[in-house]
Design a protein that fits this description.
The chain contains 20 helices and 24 strands. It is of the alpha+beta class. It folds into 3 domains: about 200 residues, Heat Shock Protein 90 (2-Layer Sandwich), CATH 3.30.565; about 170 residues, 2-Layer Sandwich (Ribosomal Protein S5, domain 2); about 170 residues, Rossmann fold (3-Layer(aba) Sandwich). The strands form 5 sheets. Strands 3, 4, 5, 6, 7, 8, 9, 10 and 11 form a 9-stranded mixed beta sheet that branches. A 5-stranded mixed beta sheet has the order 12-13-16-14-15, sandwiched between helices. About 35% of the residues are buried.
């Protein structure tokens, strides 16, 4: 089996014997009466349903689902911070494999619940939809899963310990797989007069694919939350290891500056506005927006609703974009910076080089799905549009030098867009971007089903020749590239359309580029980058990854990009041939094979014949490939900017910091 093949663990196939089926008069299939009794109805009590189908609550019990549980607990602490009752959050990775989250909030209530007859803490931890987030009684604004979050975490925990400091007492309760292991234990707090909650989570290994927490995954989300909640201290520590504290008095203004730290901003201080707007339908809505342009060609816009990252945007983003485009066009016309014969800016023109954070906080937000990727609350559009329109217009009037720089950037983008349009039309007329007119260098596969097809992008004609001979022609296509492609970090679309290798790549994939990209037209389900294991190969790989990330980000987001792993060494003793993919593996194989072993160090793919390339790198039964994933969009953007952007000092610092980690470097 191909090592990168994924199987959906949620898929369940139920077989029903033919004799147990009856066909009703309406033509529907139902179970026969004699096999459908009261005893056939399964009742999942308490949190049993969560353990039975964890994917319904955390998407999947994989590494992401594991960390999602921690974030659900953190969200409760953040809700306390948004209520003005919490100033510090501590997240600790313990040596025993657990993670604890503590805050200095009010502490979960522990008194006997008026209707349930047990402590309120036990109700919160063991019942779905129990919490202070309904009807605005406990929290006017919250970001959790409407009271589901912490009880779900409890259900999926092998063990979970809750400590509450409240009303002069220290209260503790322990659970296992969601079930209380004893009554609430209370003791005096010995005059500490502290308050807050700590939840210590031991993930259940029978539920999760992995129970090992990743410091960097936790770090990214906690940093984001600290930016979004200015003045909140958030600390992450690893027992016996790393420790990081986040505290941003400037909030999302500092977030924008952080995102632009390796770029060249057009103006020093970001535009920032924060307003509370009272509405008859929604109550008070908080709007925060920070904006700063830079001289790059990329747009970075992150939006949040109640601290939830709305990756797919929504009404608040629509309102922001509409206001920005309108204000920029009106200002440019009023100041005669746009000539009478020049057309208005488009949204893309005014957002080129834009870094922006949009954060709204509102009671009972509405989202498109349970994953909350898109805000659909209608009032958010008008409010964000109105607030940004008024205050950004004022910002431009008060800062004419800054305004002129932004307008000139937009004019340059507009002209480049027009040049790109003409270039696109030119190459389309020549058929260079039409998948019906594939590049001559492409050795296509016979299978036309994208789900079963893969494209190998190969460095050089020599390796391309071996790959074409060694491949499985049924489902593997080969596209050899000559030299290094254009660095798209420093180029606009019009330059890309003028680059023959990029045109060949666009045509081979058949899905377009940039705004025109359409996943449904993609000709291959997998795109595999196969380059030499040397400095030049790494550079070509980075150029290709930059191109895909900037111009076809959907390929990265959906896990369609792979990195081939050709061997570094061929070890031969007699008729026995063994391949090694690293220095460590080479030494291990040498120890196993004994003396008189011939060692060949592959300097490039071209040194392998077709059979060797197939056996080691292309055969799905034997090969090992790395999948390119996107876990942290902020960090990914930063890395591409550092490696491929114009600023030299950040790149020099990156090389100095990570040079010792580089292995197998040929100079």
């Amino acid at each position: 089996m191909d090592p990168v093949t994924e199987i959906n663990p949620e898929e369940v196939i139920t077989e029903m014997a033919e004799e147990d089926r009856v066909l009703s008069r309406e033509g529907e299939i139902s179970m026969s009466v004699e096999h459908y009794e009261a005893g056939d109805i399964q009742v999942l009590k308490g949190l049993e349903g969560v353990r039975k189908r964890p994917g319904m609550y955390i998407n999947a019990p994989d590494v992401n689902g594991l960390h999602h549980c921690v974030f659900e607990v953190v969200d409760n602490s953040i809700d306390e911070a948004m209520a003005g009752a919490c100033t510090q959050i501590w997240v600790t990775m313990h040596l025993d494999g657990s993670v604890s989250v503590r805050d200095d909030g009010r502490g979960i209530p522990v008194a006997i619940h008026p209707t349930e007859g047990v402590s309120t803490l036990e109700v919160v931890m063991t019942q779905l939809h129990a919490g202070g987030k309904f009807e605005g009684k406990g929290y006017k604004v919250s970001g959790g899963l409407h009271g589901v979050g912490v009880s779900v975490v409890n259900a999926l925990a092998d063990r979970l310990i809750v400590d509450v400091w409240r009303e002069g007492g220290h209260h503790q309760m322990t659970f296992a797989k969601g079930i209380p292991q004893g009554p609430l234990v209370t003791e005096p707090d010995e005059g500490q007069e502290q308050s807050g909650t700590q939840v210590r989570f031991y993930p259940d290994p029978t539920i999760f694919e992995t129970t090992v927490f990743n410091y960097d995954i936790l770090l990214q989300r906690l940093r984001e939350l600290a930016f979004l909640n200015r003045g909140l201290s958030v600390e992450l520590s690893q027992e016996g290891g790393r420790h990081t504290r986040f505290f941003y008095e400037g909030g999302i203004r500092q977030f924008v500056q952080y995102l632009n730290q390796n770029k060249s901003p057009l103006y020093q201080d970001p535009f920032y506005v924060s307003r509370l707007v009272d509405t008859p339908e929604r109550g008070t809505i908080s709007v925060e927006i920070a904006v700063q342009h830079n001289d790059s060609f990329q747009e970075q816009l992150y939006s949040f609703a109640n601290n939830i990252n709305t990756a797919n945007g929504g009404t608040h983003v629509t309102g922001f974009k509409s206001a920005l485009t309108r204000v920029m066009n009106l200002y440019a016309r009023e100041k005669k910076l746009l000539k009478d014969n020049e057309i208005n800016f488009t949204g893309d023109d005014v957002r080129e080089g834009l870094t922006a954070i949009i954060s709204v906080k509102l009671p009972e937000p509405q989202f498109d799905t349970q994953t909350k990727g898109k805000l659909t609350t209608t009032e958010a559009r008008q409010i964000v549009e109105s607030v940004f329109d008024e205050f950004f217009k004022q910002f431009l009037e008060e800062n004419p030098g800054v305004a002129k720089g932004i307008v000139e950037k937009s004019i340059s983008a507009s002209r480049a867009r027009e040049a790109a349009r003409k270039a696109r039309e030119t190459v389309r007329r020549k058929g260079a971007l039409d998948s019906a007119s594939l590049p001559g260098k492409l050795a296509d596969c016979s299978n036309r089903d994208p789900a079963e097809s893969e494209l190998f992008i190969v460095e050089g004609d020599s390796a391309g020749g071996s790959a074409k001979q060694g491949r499985d022609r049924h489902f593997q296509a080969i596209l050899p590239l000559k030299g290094k492609i254009l660095n798209v970090e420093k180029a606009r679309l019009d330059k890309m359309f003028g680059h023959s290798e990029i045109r060949a790549l666009i045509a081979a994939l058949g899905a377009g580029i940039g705004e025109d990209f359409n996943m449904e037209k993609l000709r291959y389900g997998r795109v595999v980058i196969m380059t030499d294991a040397d400095v030049d190969g790494a550079h070509i790989r980075t150029l290709l990854l930059t191109f895909f990330y900037r111009q076809m980000p959907q390929l990265v987001e959906q896990g369609r990009i792979y990195i081939a792993q050709p061997p570094l060494f061929k070890l031969t003793r007699g008729k026995k041939v063994v391949y090694a993919y690293s220095d460590v593996e080479r030494d291990e194989r040498l120890a196993e094979m004994g003396e008189n072993v011939g060692i060949q160090r592959y300097k490039g793919l071209g040194e392998m014949d077709a059979e060797q390339l197939w056996i080691t790198t292309m055969d799905p039964a034997e090969r090992v490939m790395r999948i390119v994933t996107l876990n942290d969009a902020v960090e990914a953007d930063s890395i591409f900017t550092v490696l491929m952007g114009d600023e030299v000092p950040p790149r020099r610092e990156f090389i100095i910091n990570y040079a010792r980690d580089v292995k197998n470097l040929d100079i």
